[in-house]
Amino acid sequence: MKPSAPSGRLGNASEVLQRYLRAFSDLTSVVVVAPGRVAGAASSAVFAGWHVTDCSAQFVGTARQRTDELVFESSGTTGDPKLVRYRKQVIRDCATAIARMLELEAARDYIALINPRFAYGLSVLHSHHLAGTPVRFAKPPTTLAEWADVRESLRPDSTIYLAPHHSFLLAQDPHWRFNAPIELVFAGGPLRQSMVDALGRCFPNATVTNMYGQAELGPRISIGRSAITAFREGDVGRPLPGVDVRADPQGRISVRSPYRMESYVTAAGEPVPADASADWWPTGDVGRVGADGTVLITGRAASDINFLGGRIGLDHLRQIVRDVDGVLDVRVSAVRHQAFGECPHLRVLIPSRANRDAAERAVRIALSDNIGHAAAAAVVEVLDPASLPESGKL
């Protein structure tokens, strides 16, 4: 699984990715969807005359629509089956701003261990393409053996694009160290202090770049960079030029951005209303903005649910489970339940060699100690890194 040697602007780009980038650069319209949705999107009347691709193995359609639009899926807040719709020029402008903030260098070695069809991967594709800087995509590793293949190709002063949960895999081998300078770039989810502390033992001289964004906003909002020893959880740096970030008195973060999407659409291309004000987009996060413009994210907006006759805070459940021995991370959400109305759903990440049944028991015991009998009715799903979806997110 070693990344192949660079060939042209996009390193090891497949023919499908090369065709996508040619379409991205002209006025034709493109929709990027999961492999299983390509045929459906290609047959949709709404996408008639569009290119349709999964940025992997399929690129279909004879584009006649020269409306300069791009539609792609999001693995985050848009959910399923919503996609985001953009004017391509907006995406180009955002990608150019990202490239400048990252200070991309043609002579530097860039490796992307992320899926190119989601917002994060597309932003890497676009920014490197517009900057004329090669980047090599490799299949995201899910086992220590796969990561060992990648790390053999690492060179000093290179850059790796990663998802936050890759950190647990990269730090799994206690005997391996990379002492040379290297940049580790993260996006696609919150980067925890525990993740960076673990990486610090393997990459003691690394620089950590923490990018914050949403698929609806270009997708990048801000970019922060620090030595790995100086990393501060939640510090996502300063906004891209032209992007404004504010926090209300309750700490709720909203963004005004020239890189905002046109609208949501379904997989069939039908419009979906977006619940946001005309100027400011609520991110769903809470935090604060410093006097120098630095954005600090401290969590998600408070979300309580009615469950078994009482109110339960999802953030409270998240903290309980994160403190359980052996838990790497957890995502907590509310799902509809036939009997309970709303029910907490916990997706718990554990090391690849850990016992899932034992981990679930430990989680339920911790929940029971804090919320009593309601713990028995919570939905607990235990995963290891190899079970994560294509996006690398919980």
Automatic annotation (TrEMBL):
User: Does DNA-binding show up as a keyword for this record?
Assistant: no
A GO molecular-function annotation:
ligase activity
Q: Which UniProt keywords apply?
A: Ligase
Give the source's domain of life in one word: Bacteria
Where do the AMP-dependent synthetase/ligase domain residues begin and end?
A: 74-263
Q: Which Gene3D superfamilies match?
A: N-terminal domain of ligase-like
Tell me the InterPro entries matching this sequence: AMP-dep_synth/lig_dom, ANL_N_sf
Assigned protein family:
Belongs to the ATP-dependent AMP-binding enzyme family.
Any idea what this protein is called? Acyl--CoA ligase
Species: Mycolicibacterium arenosum
